[in-house]
Amino acid sequence: MRSALRSPIGLASVVLLGFLLALAVFAPLLWGDRAAAIDTDALQQGPSSAHLLGTDSLGRDIFYRVLVATRLTIGLALLATVIGVVTGLLLGSAPTVLPRWAGRIVTSAVNIAVAFPGLLLALFFAVIFGTGTVGAVLAIAFAITPSFARLTQTLTASVSGRDFIAAARVCGVGRFRLLLRHVLPNIAEPLVINATLAAGSALTAFAGLSFLGIGVQAPSYDWGRLLGEGLNRIYVTPAPALGPAVAVVLAGLAFNLFGEAAASVAGHRQQSTPGPRPVNEATVDTSEGGLLTVRNLRVAFPGNNGWITPVRGVSFTVHNGEMIGVVGESGSGKSLTALAVSRLVEHPGVVTADRLEFAGKPLRSTSDRELGTSLAMVFQDPMTSFNPTRRIGRQIAEVSEVHQGMSREAAFRKAVDRLRAVRIPEPERKARQYPHEFSGGMRQRVVIAMGLMGEPRLVIADEPTTALDVTVQREVLRLLARVRKERSAAVLLISHDITVVAQTCDRVLVMYAGRIVEELPTDELFTSARHPYTTALLAAVPDMETDRDAPLAVIPGRPPEPGEIEAGCPFAPRCPLADERCRSEEPELTALTDGHRVACWRSEKELMDATAGGAA
Amino acid sequence: MSELKFEEVSLRYGTLRAVDDVSLTVPPRQVVGLVGESGSGKSSLAAAAVGLVPPTSGRILLDGVDVQRLRRRDRRLQMVFQDPYSSLDPRMSIGQSIAEAMPRGVDRRTEVARLLALVNLDPGRATSLPSRLSGGQRQRVALARALAGQPKVIIADEITSALDVSVQGAVLNLVRDLQRQLGLSMLFISHNLAVVRYVSDRIAVMREGKIVEEGPAEQVLAGPRHPYTRELLAAAPSRHTRLLEEASR
Ligand SMILES: Nc1ncnc2c1ncn2[C@@H]1O[C@H](COP(=O)(O)OP(=O)(O)O)[C@@H](O)[C@H]1O
Ligand code: SF4
Ligand SMILES: [Mg+2]
């Protein structure tokens, strides 16, 4: 919510709200007497220097009355909002904790109540509860309740579908705790925003009721009543009516703008569609590039003690039509490298590179539109790629509508075609379904279909086959290979599974602790891999011939966190060949042969002997 | 020693038969590997076992007692989920998530540290939020959380598919060690036949809601009877074949 302050509107609304709250607290203390002072010599006067907005029928100063009325007006609006919001929360979350049948009754009741217009509901309640402050507060509170209950229900339902709720239930977490610890914190943000907006409408609605004479009753007064009194003589002197009117508008605006600003900040964060990040390019290195040229790429984030740099100087080239695999453990920086190349590293991350070029142009100067159609990104996490409230087919089709200017129908037909291409059964029907109706593997295929809607020259696939069963995995990989062949698109396949990469790619980049430690053709992977980390990885993968009775080979220890990387080779703590030099100086990636680069201090001979010894 | 038994279990979502008359036994102290296509009903079967979805018909028995009759805390049946991005509450520190699964009367802090170390994570990260962890790290936390519940039976749904090979090896070794030490019974769901082959005593193959083949691991691997099992074996990743040969025809 703090970031709402960053926009000018947000800032203005916060200042205004602060001012109003200060008035509400202090005005009655400072000016309560003056607002109540009856002056029979100055009845019904117009504005003057003594009485800025004039006086009322008892000669009381209207300006001070407006100021003093801030407390009652805002207080009652907030009270009504709190009651309404709390009741709405209770009703909205009741279905989560109640038995199923009772939950259903609550849900239908809320659905019916939502259908009534709020103000009508308020008037109805005002009649029931009688005219007066209590009646008006309850009326407005219960007018807010249904929509808030519905909002809570919807949000709760969307969170309840996620695995962490299921996991908590399996652990035996009770329904109430589930609601309090897991559901509410995850939906708090939109609820708070909507409550703020509701407070704005409560304030104006309350002014309306008081104005109509069914709200605050004399001798108490709020802006609505002042407005009502002033309006009687608006043709004589407009000021007594304008004062409270301006106050109502300003206060209503302050709440609403603050809510909107907060909502836009929150919405922006959830959509996670960041703009392009600055990339520093120096044109020192003029070596021949390819479709994608990356030189000394670094990605840094502010940490607790200064910057941490999860990607520390990555250099590689992807040529047209090439299929390149990137392997490495989680946290080695594979995904961040991919995100940096797609310009998707989010604030506060900072990307720098000596060269970062796509299709011969600095990535920085490539337009979003061009990048959108020529670079396709298939993410690791299929669920976050979709908007849960829209049909799959439309979401896929949108890519072509927006970037290629296709008509709605043509784009939809293409979407169905691509769904068929990724072997979604009954693609026409499936295209009309929502994301949650797809299984995990199915969603991943849809993501790939989406990536294929443009005319990609480079497909970056980040763990696209993780969690897919072998037959589907094979299909997906073949699909990527077909894209590559038919459209001569290059593919950058990121995977933690070295077998998958070995089976599909031309070249493999092995990453460790934010750097490439070995690059070689996949043909040579099982015979000529030299880096101790690569050979350890290869030994650790079980395959259909692994001895089932022996423990699997493992690499002792764990990779360093980005903040833990110290001087020396980052693999040294886990490396059987490490010596003093390894612990003090970090080796650079150097060429062994054409197309084979290794970052290790040991000579090729030493490494070869070690591999042979390890294998024997 | 616990036995998990599915008796003619069916599960329907609307008209879709996700699980169709499945009978399967996870014998005490044994690991049953369950392989099959995505959407074949593996995860639905798992969800029914841990009580997330009641079966439409049939019974699921834990040591002869219908799991639906057991209070959750007494169920001693834990599950590790497939998607590490959604299986941890984004607003809770990983230590809190793990502690939540612990039975009463456990020293939570030391136990959290022990479990984190067990799954190869820095115990100092207990206060981190999941968003600071990469996918593999998150899955290890999820594993620690399942172990925190001191289960007798574990259902592991694709737990290694997001793990790194070096960690996968360690986790598989760990899973096997723990399984033997604690006498855990386990239903191990995975698409990776090499992994299933490595951990499982028995293998069950599922397709379109049905178990099409089940038997001792060696037998299923060496002499698959069902055509689908044969297809799976042919598609299994191996160092000696390339997957794309057919595609480049
Ligand atoms: N937004 C972020 N803020 C801070 N650290 C991050 C952020 N995103 C990723 N990291 C850290 O960067 C490292 C590399 O992450 P990532 O590129 O996702 O690795 P990989 O894809 O190889 O698993 C990890 O240690 C991760 O914790
Ligand atoms: S530089 Fe030293 S520590 Fe690093 S991989 Fe080579 S031998 Fe091992
Ligand atoms: Mg990754």
Structural class by helix and strand composition of chain A: alpha/beta
The helicity of chain B comes to: 25-40%
CA distance, first residue to last residue of chain B: 53 Å
- Please state roughly what percent of the residues of chain A sit in beta strands, choosing from under 5%, 5-15%, 15-25%, 25-35%, 35-45% or over 45%: 5-15%
Strand arrangement, largest sheet of chain A? 7-8-9-3-10-11-13-12
What's the count of strands of chain A? Answer: 13
The chain pair forming the largest interface, with residue counts per chain, is: A-B, 69 and 81 residues
* Largest sheet descriptor of chain A: 8 strands, mixed
By CATH, the topology of the domain at 4-76 and 151-247 in chain B is Rossmann fold
How many extended strands of chain B?
10
Give helix and strand order of chain B, one letter per element, not per position: EEEHEEEHHHEHEHEEHH
CATH superfamily of the domain at 4-76 and 151-247 in chain B: P-loop containing nucleotide triphosphate hydrolases
Seen as an oligomer or otherwise, the chain set is heterodimer
CATH evolutionary superfamily of the domain at 2-266 in chain A: MetI-like
Unique bound compounds: adenosine-5'-diphosphate, iron/sulfur cluster, magnesium ion
The average pLDDT score of chain A comes to 82
The CATH level-2 architecture of the domain at 4-76 and 151-247 in chain B is identified as 3-Layer(aba) Sandwich
